[in-house]
Amino acid sequence: TNLQSNKFDRILETMAESVAETVASTVASTVAETGKDYGDKKTGGIAWAGSLVGSKNPNNLGYRYSTASKRYRTSGQDDLENGIRDLPKNIQIQFRNRKGEDLAETLDIPTNSTIDDLNALVHSLLEDTDDSGKVPYSFYAKVLKNGVEDDVEVVMSLAEMLQNELTISTETVLNLVYQPLAVFRVRPVTRCTDTLPGHTEAVLHVQYSPDGRMLASGGGDTTVRFWDVYTATPKHTCKEHKNHVLCTSWSPDGVRFVSADKNGVLIVWDPTKGTSTGKHIKAHRQYITSLAWEPMHRNASCDRLATASKDTTCKIWNVRTQSLLRTLSGHTDSVEAVKWGGEELLYTASRDRTIKVWNADRGILVRTLVGHGHRINTLALSSDYVLRTGPFDHKCLKFSTKEEAHAAAVKKYEEFSEKQGQERLVSGSDDFTLFIWNPKESKHPIKRLTGHQQAVNHIAFSPDGRYFASASFDKKTKIWNGFSGDFLVTLTGHVGSVYQVAWSGDSRYLVTASKDSTAKLWEIPSGKRAKETLPGHADEVYALDWSPNGGSVATGSKDRTIKIWKH
Hints:
Blueprint lengths: L1 H33 L10 E4 L14 E4 L1 H4 L3 H7 L8 E7 L5 E9 L4 H11 L11 E9 L2 E6 L4 H7 L9 E7 L10 E6 L6 E6 L5 E6 L4 E5 L4 E6 L6 E6 L6 E5 L3 E6 L4 E2 L4 E2 L5 E6 L10 E6 L3 E6 L4 E7 L5 E6 L4 E6 L3 E6 L4 E7 L5 E6 L2 H6 L12 H19 L4 E5 L4 E4 L7 E5 L6 E6 L5 E6 L4 E5 L5 E5 L6 E6 L5 E6 L4 E5 L8 E3 L6 E6 L6 E5 L4 E5 L1
Parallel strand pairs: 3-7
Antiparallel strand pairs: 1-2, 3-4, 5-6, 5-7, 8-40, 9-10, 10-11, 11-12, 13-14, 14-15, 15-16, 15-17, 18-19, 19-20, 20-21, 22-23, 23-24, 24-25, 26-27, 27-28, 28-29, 30-31, 31-32, 32-33, 34-35, 35-36, 36-37, 38-39, 39-40
């Protein structure tokens, strides 16, 4: 038996040696013929595939060729599965402005070009040689998502964007839309410099004047107070309201200030004297929910005001003559918000789940926007910031005449609308959703925005219109693309409902106020985590505003104090 076993082993060894010699000679001849090394990982190899004994196929030599795609995963395949792709060294791009006008011819540039490189290129093409006054730009690529064209911002470099957006082809010309940014930079607020006591009940509203020189507040103690921003001292305390002050607003020229209370009474104030002008106006049967001034570029006198109320109506007043000009009726429930747009349109949002678009001059209904499934809480316009600040900017210029201020406001709005195009409207509701609309053109929404898990209570567009932020009772703030409505990022950190948001004048920072007694500072669009937490209040933070000149942030709280925050 042992002799038979040894004999069988010798036979197997002999066969294995002969097969090995055959494989080696075949590999050598194949390499010589094809010039390919089949032992290379990237091109494949030769593997044993037969049986030493008992083969039914006499032509089966016991080996097979394998291809790289079967035996080995190439680095390209691994990268593709991981969301990474090989990029060419250069890519062809075409610069365009928001109007769709091409800037120069198609350019061939390195794929790893950064934002600074793209800015330098645009400046050279625009022949902008003044280094001190060069305007920085942001860049957007057009991407098809689910059959709809959207904008994707280039945040760091072209290469990073191309890796994140695998649907963008590197074999065709990439259209890049450039948009001007703010020339000035606002410094982030990091510390509390002043605490302003005085109110005897919760502070419900704080608002800076359009030039940023004064601060006004209103609250549950029925008073309106004016403060000097530079010295952080009280200037005037006005005690003419008989009930909670529910909403306040500065006129775009900074000459008038209005406040409305729970009794439906409207009072117009002279901020420099701290006295009311004329009689108190019994504007509505029930409490007033929202106020909106006519933009200064449309009315140099800044004397027309819209009020919205729980009594289902919206009224337009001349506050100088204290006369009622129009009553806009049509809603079937409380009107929660009113906005006066830059193109003669006025927008009202109601608990009846509709938004109505009115011609403010003629007082007629233009269209009704339907889509929300629950009461609408808030509205925001892409032009809110430029309409609120009127002729003023970060330079804090003073104007000697009304005509000069009006001309500055007209110029400022024209420049803004030239960059932005059509005015956009965003609405937020108790149905947890937002809608973005182009109300001048269509009654249908551009997009329905989902993601919040509780009611949306405040929305604000960035001053440059590129983003808007939504605050919700779900403790989250979300940032969205201001043109397409695309979701960008969720800001998490608050442990209580987020009540309000406010943007810095250069659109780089956002401040949020919360039920958790803190405010938080975020860098946009990059920061998912708060850059700074602003603690100090002893109770819920209801009110929030960032000075138009960028100097400071004011917060008002249930603890009855106002705090001023600076860099």
